[in-house]
Amino acid sequence: SAAGVQGKPWAFQVGQKALTAMLDRSDDSGTVTEHPKFPGVFRVRRDLKQALPVSIIIPSAGKQVASETGEICLLEACIASILDKSTYSNLEIIVVDGYDIPDAVLARLEGKVKLVRDRNPFNFSQRINLGAAAASGEMLLLLNDDTTVLTPDWLECLLEFAQQPEIGAVGAKLLFPDGKIQHTGVVILENAHPMHVFYGYDNLHPGYSFSNLVNRNYLAVTGACLMMRKDLFQQLGGLDVEFALNYNDVDLCLKAHQAGYRNLVTPYAQLSHYGSASRCDRRVTPAERQKFAQKWQTYLDQLGGDPYYNPNFAQDNPNFEL
Question: For 45-59, what is the mean pLDDT?
Fold first, then answer.
């Protein structure tokens, strides 16, 4: 018998040929490549049908945080990483603020972004909706200002799926500054309780059936980095302003799922995420939990729970473990 997976390289070669043949039979062109560290784990990458314009919407207050080199503005660092690292160029950046970004920051960003202003108290949903209304792109990308780009082709990776008509929301893998996972998908547990999977795990932790390493369907993804077609976003009514801080992203994803679309995460689009650095308080309140459950518990019951998370897995720590 073969000593481990390395003893059967022919099996992996056959698997790669089968995936390539599947791609050849489809209407899509693309490539099939093997994971560099995990033999037998393949990536099917479809080519972009066209370079659709992307509108990146960033709500921000221009918050300053301490870094190893001194104080930095989260928004400026985010935008610099987009412009300096991204290999995709057909984009616009829309910043939505509440008249609280310092004038000096706005001056440095002049000519780089489209500015939308809102005098109302901070409501993440409302500011995203305002940005979407001002967007000229066919694709919307919701983005927190406390993120920075890690993989230069992140937009292409998101567009690969967002361009497909059956797809709703597409999320990215977000890593804490120490490289641990902050987001790679959201499952909804018992009592309508959304939680991030693999939270705090190593980036290359394979997970159940390598689910942390491959493109995967999820019932929801975080709005910290979420791509969706603008026409679908509008069709779904945008973000629900009743969810001012939390659950607006999960609510949007559930609306998409209810309308017949699939949501997914691609781990090949990676960004660094400070977590909740860009917001004053991300702790979910009992009132928010109650409001979310009242809106969605019946639909979740109809589904029999989250269809992408086996109910036999642990319900207190959603990492596809018993």
Answer: 94
